[in-house]
Amino acid sequence: MQLRFLLEERDVYRIGLWVVKTIRERTEEGKDIEGQEFEPYSTKPFALPLGAIPKKHWKTLKKYEKTGEVAYYETEAGKLWVRIRGGYRFLRGEVLGLPVDRVNLRRSGEMLSELQVIDIQQDGSGWQMRIGWVRPELAERAFYVEKRGRKFLGLTEAEQQTLQHRIEQMLTQRLELQLPGK
User: C-alpha angle with apex 178: 174 to 179, nearest 5 degrees?
Assistant: First the structure.
């Protein structure tokens, strides 16, 4: 009797979909790769080009200029920038009208929504799978999110154990299908 325990490409793809779903769900809950809550949004003052803020929010910015929360200035290159005294938390909550109670990396939703299985290949050592983004700007955004300390790509220890269990179940089902009399 010959039994094959190798996973097929469709199995690897299903595993990849589960990994993507798991990363999205954990991140939506505001938890990082260690299962810990993400650091709260920063209240440290910062500056950014005015053009980085959607035009529909410029009126709100002007309102906060009067209170001193927002200040405009021109760079040496002649570009208009905005200084936000209350940090990204203020920009996100007061200006953009987005929730600030839980960090979940969903400003526009694009980055997490477009996380996907990019490539699956088989070589002499087994299957290789890449999870990421087709659009380079989203991969770059994720890179900077991670670089700033919000680690979300990957699986927690518990998620890795769950994945191992799922793979074992997959292999057990294959074995049962191959045994005589089944």
Answer: 120
Residue 138 near residue 110 (C-beta atoms within 8 A): yes
Distance, in Å, from the CA atom of 10 to the CA atom of 129, rounded to the nearest integer, reads 12
Q: What share of the chain is helix, strand, coil (3-state, %, to 5)?
A: 45, 15, 40
- In this structure, are residues 23 and 115 in contact, taking their beta carbons and an 8 Å threshold? yes
pTM reported for the whole predicted model = 0.78
Q: What gap in Å lies between CA 23 and CA 17, rounded to an integer?
A: 10
Whole-number pLDDT of residue 179: 64
Q: Is 171 helix (H, G, I), strand (E, B) or coil?
A: helix
Q: What digits encode the pLDDT tens for the residues 72-126?
A: 999 999 999 999 999 999 999 999 999 898 888 777 778 899 999 999 998 888 8
* Residue 3 pLDDT exceeds 60: no
Tokens for 85, please give them: 């005294």
Smallest Cα–Cα separation from 120: which of 46, 34, 11, 33? 11
